Amino acid sequence: MENQTTPIEFMILGFHNIQGLHFLLSWVISIIYIFTILGNTLIIFLSLVEPCLQTPMYFFLGNLSLLDICQTTTTVPQMQAHLVSGRSSISYARCATQLYFFLFFVGAECMLLATMAYDRYMAICKPLHYTLFMNSKFCVLLVSVSCLSGALNAALHTFLTIHLPFCEANRINYFYCDISPLLALSCGDISLNVIMILVSSIFLGWSPTLCIGRSYGYIVSRILKIHSPEGRSKAFSTCVSHLTAVLLYYGSSIFTYVRPLSSYSLDNDKLISLLYNIVTHMLNPLIYTLRNKDVKRARRKVLVKKMFF
Fold first, then answer.
1. Strands 171-172 and 89-91
2. DSSP track, 76-121
C-alpha cells in the first residue's frame, strides 16, 4: 500500500526540458514583467491623479491593473528565482499560499471584467440613469463583491487541494502551484475537487462570460441605432479595449480551467499558462492606452507638469 504522507516540499519542474535556454528565457520573462508592472502602475497613477479619469470606467480599470500586477507577482518572481538559481524546490506551505493567492486574483479578475461590461452597458444603453446607478458607493460594492468571490473560490479550492494525499510524489510538472498539476500529482480521490472546479467554472467562468455577452449584445444593438457615424465610432471605441482584454483573458483561462480534466496535458498547457499569466497582463495597459484618447491626454498632461514644475 502506498504511503500517503504529505511531502515537505515540491519540486517545480517548469522549464526542465530546455536547460540551455534558461538565461535567455529569464531575460525575456524579466522584460515582460517589468513592462507589466510599469504599464499597469501608470494606469493606476493616472486614474488617481487626473480628475478627467476619476469616473467609474477608470476606477474599474485601475482595479483591473492592480489585479494584473498582483496575479503576475504571485508567480513570476518565483519562476525567475528558479531559472536563475537552478533550484526548483518550494515548501508545501508556500505552494498552498501561492495556490490561494493565484486563484484569488484569477477569480476576482473574471468577476471584475464582467463588472466592467455592465458599466459600459449602463453608459451606452442607459445614459440618463448612469450617474444615478454607477455612483462611488455602488462601484466600490461591485469591486468588493468581485474580490470576495475570488477569495471564497480560492479558499475552497485551496482547502480541498491541500487535504489530498500525494503519496510522497512531489514533482510538479508546471511553472507554479496550480490546481491541475496538483490534482495530477495526487494519489487520492479527486472527484470532489473535479466537481467543485465544474461548479466554480459555472459561477466564475461561464456566468460572467454570459453576462459580458449579453451586455455587449445590447451595446451593439444600441450602437447600430445611432445615426451619426461619429457617435457610433465614439461609442464603439469605449468598448473595443475592454472587449479585446476580455477575449484574451477569458479565452486563455477558459481553455486552462473550464474543460474536462481528462483533456489536460500539462506539457501542452504550459504555453497557454504563460500567455494568460504573463503576456496578457503586459498587453492590457497597451490595449487600454493605444486607442484611448482620455488616457493619452492625461499622460501628456502629467508629462508636461513634470517638465515645467
1. unpaired
2. HHHHHHHHHH---EEEHHHHHHHHHHHHHHHHHHHHHHHHHHHHHH
Nearest to 112 by CA among 136, 148, 74: 148
| 3 falls within a domain | no
**Is residue 4, in this structure, part of any structural domain at all?**
no
- The closest of 58, 55, 62 to 130, measured between CA atoms, is 55
CA distance 44 to 39: 9
- Residue identified by cell 508545501 is 92
Domain limits for position 180: 9-308
Torsion of the alpha carbons at 88, 93, 96 and 101, rounded to the nearest 10: -90
Alpha helices (H) along 189-292: 191-200, 207-224, 229-257, 266-274, 280-290
Q: What is the pLDDT of residues 14-44, one digit of tens each?
A: 776 666 677 788 888 899 999 999 999 999 9
User: Tell me, what CATH number does 125's domain have?
Assistant: 1.20.1070.10
Which residue type sits at 172? Answer: I
DSSP three-state, residue 163: coil
Question: Which residues make beta-bridge pairs with 12?
Answer: 172
Q: How many domains does the chain have?
A: 1
Q: Length of the chain in residues, anyone?
A: 309
The per-residue pLDDT for range 9-21, each reduced to its tens digit, is 888 877 766 666 7
Rounded CA gap, 121 and 72, in Å? Answer: 29
